[in-house]
User: Which sequence fits this backbone?
């Protein structure tokens, strides 16, 4: 571990200590978001850039121009999907670095008890990259298996119950199974976050971090899950507000559009802050559990 | 020149409520000409998925010539083997694809011509030609008669048959204990007035055509089953473990029924019609939405296309496993569809319900030949559906979510354009190369053509044309010429010719703004010989100031519609000018500010426009799409946060 890094006291591991990192994470997401949006906006500009109402025509009532453009440019959808998939893959892998830097910021300070410089946090994040990538891969495979299994079981339940229970009850049985699968996948995600915290806090390898995370989660999994869950629910409330505002603004431009942009980015920033808050909690859990002594 | 443009600057869409159009001058028949009466009895075995049927068919030669043969349609044989015409046709891309998990058949056991006067009874089935030589299809059967049947003369046939039902495919069959019986009895093809039989094998993309008559059908099912059928229930009894119901309906040309031991029911009298919805447990919300649709639809169609003449209407919402039975029309009985959790922002249930109800007119009452001219039923009905949904639900008649609205009309316009150059709209169902072409051209393109006419020539004129057609030809089996005559009478010869070109000749149109130009008005420069003197003038700003310029608009294609051209000026104001849609026109401009942009057909009146994205041009195109950039960036950020660690 970097000798310049001094572990923070457990109760000092708070997201509010790292506003710069939160801002940088928002900027990271915004940049990637813009990278996805740029080709889409270019396509729209090529079709309606010369229209006096420009891209506002896509919000016209009845949706004729929107549907026409979607269908007309359908052949380009494959390239767009490939572009989005590439950005997602890049975001998933390269995103390990900024999120690890945030974890470093949450866990450590300097000898002078100052906030870490970005370069120091980045250096530590690079060290955590490989175990972080392994943990991410393992978690994604596990979560994917859970969701696919739940979906398969849900489908089988739906098929099996429909003749006797009817479509509605059969569908609800399947939905229940799918929900259980998704909740388990979310719990796996919670465990993954705690393991990442262990990698950063103790410099643990992927396997050791995972064992520590499982031990930390097991005794109070419901409390921990809720700790993640209320933040996720709060994010959803923000999303609903963003959707409502988006609907109200419709195809308007000018200040209405500027306001919408600001609100949307505040929502994205708030979601990043919620996530930082949760990771701080995960760091406190790991710190409290302590590094297991090697046998 | 400017005065001419100003004169043309009139609104394109006619004003007025289309339901207020008057039809007092159009005679509407009260009843159909009774040609084929069926008195049948059917017994359902829901375990073997079979129906045993027997009864009599009374048929009258309503043509002008004697006939010596009958043609019988045994359409359940379409699912008998893979050599049927239905399963051989490689069209795909529409409903009813694949093969049934259990094969089906209709086996005629008896077809007896009853004795008449001095003529003895005759067994007809032994001489029947079940299929053509070298063709295994058994859906279109020729039955020679032992004697001529003169015009106006009637014959009575005793018939007995067994149905083995398929697993649900193309509207008919079973799924679990749900059974739907469509095209389930031996049915006589229609004899046209000139003595030619309109008989067809069951083609994959085709529907049906038959004569009107009275159907008196007794249905025998297990007592735990509920029945939905064409025509009102006139007798009902429980005999041991069987339920027996008799349904009788005059003035119809088909009879379909369903039986299931899980049906629930909602009923309501709407505009004097007894409407019942049969639906699976848990689909109550869907049933309510279907009834709400008809609360608008029945009186709306009455005003536009004439009164619904039957006492009742039954809607059947099949369970999910029997979805192929959904979205179909029979006289006084229609099937809808959709999941029980259908989201309210998507109007699929309303769309299917309105569409199938509309078929009571465009198939049921006018009774066109669905095989030869599918656009006359599906196309006109798709227009009626989108018109009604638009009148009821407005711009979001197909969907409405998150500030976006999607109309049924937009869907039809955009998808109809996809196949506009491939095949003509007006052709027989079996001539379409693919199911996708059939769907886009017959349903969507026809609807978009008529909607374009409504927007260009006025709601009232098109309502009058279609309303006169449906009233004048009620029970009348009209053809395309009857439709064109009705349009010509109401809209004039040129629009009627355009309609013909659009339907029969792959008619198309593409408007384009080729360019716009404006500059400060100037006194002209150059060498001028005036009053015997030569003077050279340099261009200079005109004393009255202002700008002058032009917009070059063109039209390609074979269809011509007048459209608006909207000029946007630099000060943000707009001017509308009507262009008669000639091949090309340079529209002059003169005004106080420079010309900023021009748009042809800004209100999308011509849904048939091949490429609406070339309908505009700007002096300086905008370099950004700010709204799209904002929304997509935000959505992408949310998406990425779900994947990013």
Assistant:
């Amino acid at each position: 571990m970097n000798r310049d890094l001094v572990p923070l006291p457990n109760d000092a591991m708070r997201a509010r200590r790292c506003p710069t990192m939160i801002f940088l994470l928002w900027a990271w997401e915004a940049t990637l978001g813009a990278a996805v949006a740029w080709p889409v906006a270019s396509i729209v500009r090529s079709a309606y850039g010369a229209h006096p109402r420009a891209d506002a025509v896509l919000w016209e009532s009845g949706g004729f121009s929107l549907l026409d453009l979607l269908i007309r440019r359908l052949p380009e959808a494959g390239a767009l999907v490939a572009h989005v998939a590439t950005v997602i893959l890049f975001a998933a892998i390269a995103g390990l670095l900024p999120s690890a830097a945030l974890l470093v910021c949450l866990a450590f300070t300097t000898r002078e008890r100052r906030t870490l410089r970005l370069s120091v946090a980045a250096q530590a994040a690079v060290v955590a990259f490989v175990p972080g990538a392994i943990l991410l891969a393992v978690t994604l495979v596990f979560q994917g298996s859970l969701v696919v299994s739940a979906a398969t079981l849900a489908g089988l339940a739906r098929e099996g119950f429909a003749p006797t229970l009817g479509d509605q009850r059969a569908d609800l049985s399947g939905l229940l199974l799918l929900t259980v699968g998704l909740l388990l996948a979310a719990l796996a995600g919670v465990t993954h976050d705690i393991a990442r915290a262990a990698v950063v806090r103790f410099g643990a390898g992927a396997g050791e971090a995972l064992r520590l995370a499982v031990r930390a989660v097991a005794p109070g999994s419901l409390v921990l899950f809720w700790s993640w869950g209320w933040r996720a629910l709060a994010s959803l409330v923000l999303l609903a507000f963003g959707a409502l505002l988006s609907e109200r603004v419709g195809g308007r431009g000018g200040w209405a559009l500027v306001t919408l942009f600001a609100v949307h980015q505040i929502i994205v920033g708030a979601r990043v802050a919620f996530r930082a808050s949760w990771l701080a909690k995960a760091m406190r859990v790991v710190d409290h559990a302590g590094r297991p002594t090697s046998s | 020149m400017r005065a001419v443009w100003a004169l043309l600057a009139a609104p394109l869409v006619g004003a007025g409520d289309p339901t207020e159009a008057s039809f007092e001058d159009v005679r509407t028949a009260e009843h159909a000409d009774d040609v084929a009466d069926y008195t049948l009895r059917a017994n359902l075995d829901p375990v073997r998925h079979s129906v045993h049927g027997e009864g009599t068919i009374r048929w009258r030669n309503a043509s002008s010539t004697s006939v010596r043969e009958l043609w019988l349609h045994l359409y359940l044989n379409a699912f008998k083997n893979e050599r049927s015409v239905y399963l051989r046709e490689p069209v795909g891309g529409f409903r009813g694809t694949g093969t049934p998990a259990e094969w089906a058949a209709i086996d005629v056991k008896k077809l007896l011509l009853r004795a008449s006067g001095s003529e003895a009874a005759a067994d007809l089935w032994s001489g029947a030609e079940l299929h053509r030589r070298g063709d295994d299809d058994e859906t279109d059967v020729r039955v020679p008669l032992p004697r001529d049947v003169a015009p106006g003369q009637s014959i009575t046939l005793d018939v007995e048959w067994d149905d083995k039902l398929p697993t649900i495919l193309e509207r008919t069959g079973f799924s679990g204990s749900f059974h739907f019986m469509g095209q389930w009895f031996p049915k006589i093809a229609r004899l046209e007035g000139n003595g030619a039989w309109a008989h067809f094998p069951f083609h994959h993309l085709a529907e049906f055509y038959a004569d009107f008559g009275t159907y008196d059908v007794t249905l025998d099912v297990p007592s735990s089953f509920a029945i939905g059928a064409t025509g009102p229930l006139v007798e009902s009894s429980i005999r041991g473990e069987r339920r027996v119901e008799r349904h009788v309906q005059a003035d119809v040309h088909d009879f379909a029924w369903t039986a299931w031991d899980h049906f629930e029911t909602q009923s309501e009298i709407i505009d004097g019609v007894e409407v019942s919805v049969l639906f699976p447990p848990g689909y109550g919300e869907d049933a309510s939405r279907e009834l709400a649709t008809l609360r608008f639809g029945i009186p709306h169609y009455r005003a536009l296309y004439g009164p619904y003449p039957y006492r009742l209407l039954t809607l059947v919402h099949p369970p999910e496993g029997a979805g192929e039975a959904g979205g179909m029309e029979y006289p006084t009985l229609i099937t809808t569809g959709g999941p029980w959790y259908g989201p309210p922002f998507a109007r699929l249930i309303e769309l299917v319900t309105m569409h199938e109800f509309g078929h009571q007119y465009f198939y049921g009452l006018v009774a066109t030949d669905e095989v030869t001219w599918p656009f006359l039923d599906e196309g006109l009905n798709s227009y009626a559906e989108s018109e009604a949904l638009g009148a009821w639900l407005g711009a979001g008649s197909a969907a409405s979510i998150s500030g976006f609205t999607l109309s049924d009309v937009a869907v039809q316009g955009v998808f109809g354009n996809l196949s506009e150059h491939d095949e003509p709209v007006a052709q027989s169902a079996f001539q379409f190369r693919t199911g996708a072409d059939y769907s886009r051209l017959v349903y969507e393109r026809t609807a978009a053509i008529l909607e374009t006419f409504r927007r260009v020539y006025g709601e009232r004129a098109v309502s009058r044309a279609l309303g006169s057609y449906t009233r004048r030809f009620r029970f009348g089996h009209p053809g395309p010429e009857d439709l064109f005559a009705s349009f010509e009478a109401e809209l004039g010869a040129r629009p009627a010719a355009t309609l013909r070109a659009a339907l029969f000749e792959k008619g198309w149109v593409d408007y384009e703004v080729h360019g716009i130009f404006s500059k400060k008005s100037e006194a002209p420069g150059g060498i001028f010989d005036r009053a015997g003197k030569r003077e050279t003038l340099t261009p200079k700003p005109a004393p009255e100031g202002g700008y002058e310029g032009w917009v070059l608009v063109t039209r390609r294609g074979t269809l011509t519609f007048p459209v608006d051209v909207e000029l946007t000026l630099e000060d943000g104001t707009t001017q509308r000018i009507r262009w008669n849609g000639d091949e090309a026109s340079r529209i002059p401009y003169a005004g106080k500010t420079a010309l900023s942009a021009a748009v042809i057909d800004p209100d999308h009146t011509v849904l048939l426009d091949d490429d609406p994205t070339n309908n505009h041009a700007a002096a300086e195109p905008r370099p950004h799409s700010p709204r799209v950039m904002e929304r997509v960036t935000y959505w992408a950020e949310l998406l990425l946060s779900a994947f990013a660690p």
Q: What stands out?
A: Residues 194 and 527 of chain B are 78 Å apart (CA to CA). The two ends of chain B are 68 Å apart (CA to CA).
